[in-house]
Amino acid sequence: MKRILIICLVLFVGACNQTPNQETEVRQTVQSFFDAFNKHEFEDVAAITTEDWNHVNPLGGWTKGREAVLKELKEVHSTFLKGVSMTIEDMSVRFASPDVAVVTVTNRIETYTTPDGVKHENERQIKTFIVVKRGGKWMIMQDQNTIIGGK
Q: What pTM was computed for the model?
């Protein structure tokens, strides 16, 4: 019984070991992604993403690896997302461990038309980011973007 109590105490202390500074750093990493999106310039995104970054776009595509994701982002931002901006409405950060955070963001995106001709107006989206600490720096390892229904 004493061992179980000690294990629970260690796990509790570890879970509560996050500092406001760590949350701020995680938020800044995700904000940097949104800033790059709105500028349509992704050169600096490599510095805030892992090499094995995975991206699931709102149309259901799954792109694996930083180079492939950056290539996709540059392509869509030079075509149907050219000039389109997103505005963050809410951001929530939860720590799964001292080196892993789950960030959920709701945002509004300006009007755009996908290559299949579907016009998206006044759309809200929810994004989930897995942000990991590597080499002392918080980096996006995975993100998924979903269109919020109920129009």
A: 0.85
